[in-house]
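Q: Hi! First time doing this. I have a protein sequence and I read that you can turn it into a structure. Is that right? Here it is:
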Amino acid sequence: MRTQPTMMSALPSRLLAAVLFAAALPAAQAADNLISNGSFESGSTGWTLIGDATLSSSDAYDGTVSSLLQDVSGSGAAVTTSFSAIAVSEIAELSLWLRNADLGPLSLVVFGYSSGSTGSTVLEDFGNPDWTQFSLLSSLDSSQSLVSLTVYGGTGSASYVDDVLLTRISSAVPEPHSAALFAAGLIGVASLIRRRMQA
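A: Yes, that's right. Below is the predicted 3D structure, encoded as C-alpha coordinates:
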Protein backbone atom coordinates (compact mmCIF):
# COMPACT_ATOMS: atom_id res chain seq x y z
CA MET A 1 0.00 0.00 0.00
CA ARG A 2 1.35 3.40 -1.02
CA THR A 3 1.57 6.08 1.67
CA GLN A 4 0.97 9.75 1.05
CA PRO A 5 3.98 12.00 1.76
CA THR A 6 3.71 13.95 4.98
CA MET A 7 4.63 17.59 5.41
CA MET A 8 7.97 16.58 6.97
CA SER A 9 8.88 14.15 4.20
CA ALA A 10 8.17 16.79 1.57
CA LEU A 11 10.28 19.41 3.39
CA PRO A 12 13.66 18.59 1.77
CA SER A 13 12.25 18.73 -1.75
CA ARG A 14 10.46 22.01 -0.98
CA LEU A 15 13.65 23.46 0.48
CA LEU A 16 15.58 22.37 -2.59
CA ALA A 17 12.99 23.93 -4.88
CA ALA A 18 13.11 27.20 -2.94
CA VAL A 19 16.91 27.34 -3.04
CA LEU A 20 17.02 26.59 -6.77
CA PHE A 21 14.34 29.22 -7.45
CA ALA A 22 16.32 31.83 -5.50
CA ALA A 23 19.48 30.91 -7.39
CA ALA A 24 17.73 31.38 -10.72
CA LEU A 25 16.84 34.99 -9.90
CA PRO A 26 19.38 37.54 -11.12
CA ALA A 27 21.33 39.39 -8.48
CA ALA A 28 19.30 42.41 -7.42
CA GLN A 29 21.33 45.50 -8.16
CA ALA A 30 20.11 49.07 -8.09
CA ALA A 31 20.54 50.76 -11.46
CA ASP A 32 22.75 53.79 -10.88
CA ASN A 33 21.98 56.88 -12.94
CA LEU A 34 25.13 57.75 -14.89
CA ILE A 35 23.86 61.30 -15.36
CA SER A 36 24.78 63.46 -12.41
CA ASN A 37 21.73 65.22 -10.97
CA GLY A 38 19.31 63.92 -13.62
CA SER A 39 16.38 65.25 -11.59
CA PHE A 40 17.80 68.80 -11.17
CA GLU A 41 17.21 68.58 -7.41
CA SER A 42 20.78 69.84 -6.85
CA GLY A 43 20.23 72.87 -9.05
CA SER A 44 22.37 73.04 -12.18
CA THR A 45 25.09 70.77 -10.78
CA GLY A 46 26.22 68.48 -13.60
CA TRP A 47 24.41 70.57 -16.23
CA THR A 48 25.12 73.64 -18.34
CA LEU A 49 22.16 75.96 -18.90
CA ILE A 50 22.25 77.51 -22.39
CA GLY A 51 20.50 80.71 -23.48
CA ASP A 52 17.20 81.28 -21.70
CA ALA A 53 17.17 77.91 -19.90
CA THR A 54 16.46 78.19 -16.17
CA LEU A 55 15.53 75.98 -13.24
CA SER A 56 11.92 75.93 -12.09
CA SER A 57 10.31 75.00 -8.80
CA SER A 58 6.79 75.65 -10.13
CA ASP A 59 6.48 72.42 -12.12
CA ALA A 60 8.41 69.16 -11.68
CA TYR A 61 7.69 65.55 -12.56
CA ASP A 62 9.45 64.19 -9.48
CA GLY A 63 10.76 66.17 -6.55
CA THR A 64 10.54 69.95 -6.56
CA VAL A 65 12.80 71.15 -9.39
CA SER A 66 12.88 70.77 -13.17
CA SER A 67 14.58 72.62 -16.00
CA LEU A 68 12.49 75.19 -17.85
CA LEU A 69 13.35 75.52 -21.54
CA GLN A 70 11.67 78.62 -22.97
CA ASP A 71 13.32 80.74 -25.65
CA VAL A 72 12.04 84.24 -24.86
CA SER A 73 14.95 86.37 -26.13
CA GLY A 74 15.81 84.58 -29.36
CA SER A 75 19.01 83.09 -27.92
CA GLY A 76 17.60 79.57 -27.57
CA ALA A 77 17.05 77.48 -24.47
CA ALA A 78 18.79 74.18 -23.75
CA VAL A 79 20.42 72.10 -21.04
CA THR A 80 23.45 69.93 -21.69
CA THR A 81 25.37 67.37 -19.65
CA SER A 82 28.44 65.25 -20.31
CA PHE A 83 29.61 62.02 -18.71
CA SER A 84 32.18 59.24 -19.07
CA ALA A 85 31.90 57.48 -22.42
CA ILE A 86 29.53 54.51 -22.42
CA ALA A 87 29.13 52.18 -25.40
CA VAL A 88 25.56 52.35 -26.68
CA SER A 89 25.48 48.53 -26.61
CA GLU A 90 25.98 48.73 -22.81
CA ILE A 91 23.09 51.14 -22.17
CA ALA A 92 20.05 49.66 -20.42
CA GLU A 93 17.93 52.83 -20.40
CA LEU A 94 18.14 56.40 -21.65
CA SER A 95 14.98 58.40 -20.98
CA LEU A 96 13.59 61.72 -19.83
CA TRP A 97 10.28 63.32 -18.88
CA LEU A 98 8.88 66.34 -20.75
CA ARG A 99 5.91 68.63 -20.28
CA ASN A 100 4.54 71.56 -22.25
CA ALA A 101 1.14 72.66 -20.96
CA ASP A 102 0.46 74.82 -24.05
CA LEU A 103 1.36 72.57 -26.99
CA GLY A 104 2.27 69.20 -25.59
CA PRO A 105 5.91 68.08 -25.42
CA LEU A 106 8.15 69.30 -28.24
CA SER A 107 11.91 69.10 -27.92
CA LEU A 108 15.07 68.38 -29.88
CA VAL A 109 17.59 66.07 -28.22
CA VAL A 110 21.18 65.94 -29.50
CA PHE A 111 23.50 63.05 -28.62
CA GLY A 112 27.27 63.59 -28.50
CA TYR A 113 29.51 60.61 -29.29
CA SER A 114 33.16 60.01 -28.37
CA SER A 115 34.05 59.98 -32.09
CA GLY A 116 33.08 63.66 -32.31
CA SER A 117 29.93 62.97 -34.30
CA THR A 118 26.40 63.75 -33.16
CA GLY A 119 22.92 62.35 -33.59
CA SER A 120 19.51 63.78 -32.78
CA THR A 121 15.84 63.05 -32.37
CA VAL A 122 12.71 65.18 -32.09
CA LEU A 123 10.36 64.40 -29.21
CA GLU A 124 6.74 65.46 -29.63
CA ASP A 125 3.31 64.65 -28.34
CA PHE A 126 1.16 67.57 -29.50
CA GLY A 127 -1.94 68.32 -27.47
CA ASN A 128 -0.83 66.33 -24.41
CA PRO A 129 -0.47 68.76 -21.46
CA ASP A 130 0.76 66.10 -19.03
CA TRP A 131 4.24 64.92 -18.11
CA THR A 132 5.32 62.32 -20.68
CA GLN A 133 8.26 59.92 -20.56
CA PHE A 134 10.32 59.46 -23.71
CA SER A 135 12.74 56.59 -24.24
CA LEU A 136 15.76 57.64 -26.31
CA LEU A 137 17.57 54.32 -26.62
CA SER A 138 16.29 53.45 -30.09
CA SER A 139 17.49 56.83 -31.40
CA LEU A 140 21.15 56.13 -30.58
CA ASP A 141 23.83 54.94 -33.02
CA SER A 142 24.62 51.42 -31.78
CA SER A 143 28.20 51.57 -33.11
CA GLN A 144 29.10 54.61 -30.99
CA SER A 145 29.92 55.53 -27.39
CA LEU A 146 27.74 58.23 -25.84
CA VAL A 147 29.44 61.13 -23.99
CA SER A 148 26.86 63.94 -23.85
CA LEU A 149 23.20 64.81 -24.08
CA THR A 150 21.63 68.19 -24.94
CA VAL A 151 17.91 68.95 -24.69
CA TYR A 152 16.51 71.99 -26.55
CA GLY A 153 13.17 73.66 -25.88
CA GLY A 154 10.84 75.21 -28.42
CA THR A 155 10.31 78.89 -29.15
CA GLY A 156 7.78 80.85 -27.11
CA SER A 157 6.01 78.25 -25.02
CA ALA A 158 7.42 76.75 -21.83
CA SER A 159 8.84 73.21 -21.94
CA TYR A 160 9.93 71.46 -18.76
CA VAL A 161 12.40 68.57 -18.61
CA ASP A 162 12.96 66.34 -15.58
CA ASP A 163 14.28 62.94 -14.45
CA VAL A 164 16.87 62.34 -17.18
CA LEU A 165 18.04 58.75 -16.72
CA LEU A 166 21.00 56.83 -18.17
CA THR A 167 21.73 53.33 -16.84
CA ARG A 168 24.17 50.60 -17.78
CA ILE A 169 23.15 46.98 -18.45
CA SER A 170 23.77 44.95 -15.29
CA SER A 171 26.12 42.00 -15.60
CA ALA A 172 23.96 40.17 -13.03
CA VAL A 173 27.05 38.48 -11.58
CA PRO A 174 26.26 37.40 -8.02
CA GLU A 175 28.29 39.03 -5.29
CA PRO A 176 30.71 36.74 -3.37
CA HIS A 177 28.53 36.64 -0.25
CA SER A 178 25.50 35.67 -2.39
CA ALA A 179 27.43 32.78 -3.93
CA ALA A 180 28.59 31.64 -0.48
CA LEU A 181 25.05 31.79 0.87
CA PHE A 182 23.80 29.79 -2.11
CA ALA A 183 26.51 27.14 -1.59
CA ALA A 184 25.66 26.88 2.12
CA GLY A 185 21.99 26.43 1.24
CA LEU A 186 22.80 23.64 -1.21
CA ILE A 187 24.96 21.86 1.37
CA GLY A 188 22.15 22.14 3.94
CA VAL A 189 19.57 20.77 1.51
CA ALA A 190 21.84 17.92 0.47
CA SER A 191 22.40 17.07 4.13
CA LEU A 192 18.64 17.03 4.83
CA ILE A 193 17.99 14.79 1.83
CA ARG A 194 20.74 12.39 2.84
CA ARG A 195 19.42 12.14 6.40
CA ARG A 196 15.89 11.59 5.12
CA MET A 197 17.03 8.79 2.82
CA GLN A 198 18.93 7.09 5.65
CA ALA A 199 15.92 7.21 8.00
